[in-house]
Amino acid sequence: MSSNDISAKVAGKTVRLSWTDGPTKGTTHAHHFFADGTVEWHAEGGDEQKEQKAGAAGKPERPKYLAADIGSQACLVSYLSTSGYTLSVALNFDDGTTVGVASNEKTWVPVRGTFELAS
Questions:
Q1: β strands within 1-119, DSSP E
Q2: If we measure between CA atoms, which residue out of 28, 91, 26 comes closest to residue 65?
Q3: What is the pTM of this model?
Q4: 3-state percent breakdown (helix, strand, coil) of the chain, nearest 5
Q5: pLDDT in tens, 42-95
Q6: Which of 51, 52, 55, 89 sits between 20 and 30 A of 24, alpha carbons compared?
Q7: For 24, which DSSP code?
């Protein structure tokens, strides 16, 4: 992954995604996009460990992500977790909305929501 695939809009920041449609409707997930191109996430307001399993060393997984700018006010973010699920969403920084797809080898589900930068 090249440095061109890590947008300054999210690199080094925490993005709180609140889902309004899709399988996680009504929940919020905090995603921290590290500057090294990896992401770590957890559910907020509940059983946070249920959402992201620890890796072999007992630490949360940190898969690589793509964060590519789409014009001046949007960014495409995508990552593949070790559970086999991929999350790909477009973040619209103009109005704070997001739309995308959660998928694995058997399912493909549209998702929608809002987001805010927590840091």
A1: 13-21, 28-33, 39-43, 65-69, 74-80, 86-92, 97-103, 108-117
A2: 91
A3: 0.85
A4: 5, 50, 45
A5: 999 865 444 444 444 556 789 999 999 999 999 999 999 998 999 999 999 999
A6: 55
A7: T
